[in-house]
């Protein structure tokens, strides 16, 4: 699973207008890049984020078309709210939310409940993704309240995760702040509040904590309960994409932030594998 941040369109489209170009980015990804994602092992993508609509409706339509062509499952737009993938007899459902036009709304409690509950009614495992929270190195913490950024309500990601799990989610995977945040467990289900910058390009800030990201390998029961996990540490050092981080810097960041932001749980690491226990 990953978050596809921006439209797939080789040319054309209707670029969004920006009132302040110094803080505005218009993203474009070439169609051939989707085959690279497929070869890398991605088979489920969120397209609920603040850049998927950067090139207007032509960008959204072509993104959907190219993902279908490569048999990559996707979700998060109002036109494609959820998708499923059967793996070794297990039916996995995925949906995604963001605070942006055309996306399932991270701030709409009823929509969250309705869609997640529907997926849970016929899927064995339900993954819920969200693109929420304020961005940048000054926003590493989960504040347990609505986060405002550039005048937009980016949601209360702590409450969102609990709403999703209460409706039937088994795994909640967050992204949006462009840094790694704490992990959590609620009702035995795993939550990642932000998974950092994994594979970015050009003007992204990848210095320090902005250049590190975890790949989570999770083991859950047939009922979706979290059993244990592994963190594969990655780092970006410049153009060329992610590389393995032998120093495992992101694990130390996860340990620190989880201890500070989610003191109700106890995360035990054995090198790069981990378990989570509720504290008494």
Name the features:
six-stranded mixed beta sheet; five-stranded antiparallel beta sheet; 280 residues; alpha/beta
Describe this structure in words.
With 280 residues, this protein is α/β, with parallel strands linked by helices. Helices cover 22% and strands 29% of the residues. It contains 5 helices and 16 strands. The protein starts with a strand and ends with a strand.
Short account of what is shown:
The protein has helices at about 30-40, 55-70, 110-120, 155-165, 250-260; strands at about 1-5, 45, 75, 80-85, 90-95, 125-130, 150, 150-155, 170-175, 185, 190, 210-220, 225-235, 240-245, 265-270, 275-280. It is an alpha/beta fold and about 280 residues long.
Write the layout of secondary structure elements.
Elements: E1 2-3, H1 32-40, E2 44-46, H2 56-69, E3 73-75, E4 82-87, E5 90-97, H3 109-122, E6 125-131, E7 148-149, E8 152-153, H4 157-167, E9 171-175, E10 183-186, E11 189-192, E12 212-220, E13 226-236, E14 242-244, H5 249-261, E15 265-270, E16 273-278
Parallel strand pairs: 1-2, 2-3, 5-6, 6-9, 9-11
Antiparallel strand pairs: 4-5, 7-8, 10-11, 12-13, 13-14, 13-16, 15-16
Helix percentage:
10-25%
Number of DSSP helical runs: 5
The global form is globular
State the end-to-end CA separation: 33 Å
Quote the beta fraction: 25-35%
Which whole number gives the mean pLDDT? Answer: 95
């Amino acid at each position: 699973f990953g978050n596809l941040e921006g439209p797939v369109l080789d040319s054309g489209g209707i670029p969004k207008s920006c009132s302040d170009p110094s803080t505005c980015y218009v993203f474009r990804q070439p169609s051939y890049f989707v085959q690279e994602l497929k070869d890398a092992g991605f088979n489920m993508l969120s397209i609920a984020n603040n850049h998927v609509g950067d090139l207007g409706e032509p960008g959204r339509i072509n993104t959907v078309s190219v993902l279908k062509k490569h048999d990559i499952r996707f979700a998060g737009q109002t036109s494609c709210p959820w998708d499923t993938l059967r793996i070794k007899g297990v039916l996995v459902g995925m949906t995604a939310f963001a605070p942006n036009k055309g996306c399932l709304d991270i701030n709409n409690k009823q929509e969250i409940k309705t869609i997640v509950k529907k997926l849970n009614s016929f899927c064995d495992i339900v993954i819920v993704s969200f693109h929420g929270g304020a961005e940048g190195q000054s926003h590493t913490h989960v504040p347990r309240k609505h986060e405002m950024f550039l005048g937009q309500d980016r949601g209360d990601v702590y409450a969102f995760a609990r709403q999703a799990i209460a409706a039937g989610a088994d795994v909640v995977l967050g992204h949006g702040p462009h840094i790694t945040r704490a992990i959590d467990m609620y009702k035995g289900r795993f939550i990642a509040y932000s998974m950092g910058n994994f594979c970015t390009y050009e003007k992204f800030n990848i210095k320090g904590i902005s250049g590190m990201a975890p790949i989570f390998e999770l083991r859950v029961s047939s009922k979706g309960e979290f059993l244990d996990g592994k963190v594969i540490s990655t780092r970006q050092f410049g153009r060329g994409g992610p590389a393995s981080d032998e120093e495992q810097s992101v694990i130390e960041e996860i340990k620190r932030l989880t201890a500070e932001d989610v003191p109700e749980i106890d995360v035990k690491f054995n090198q790069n594998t981990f378990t989570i226990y509720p504290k008494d």
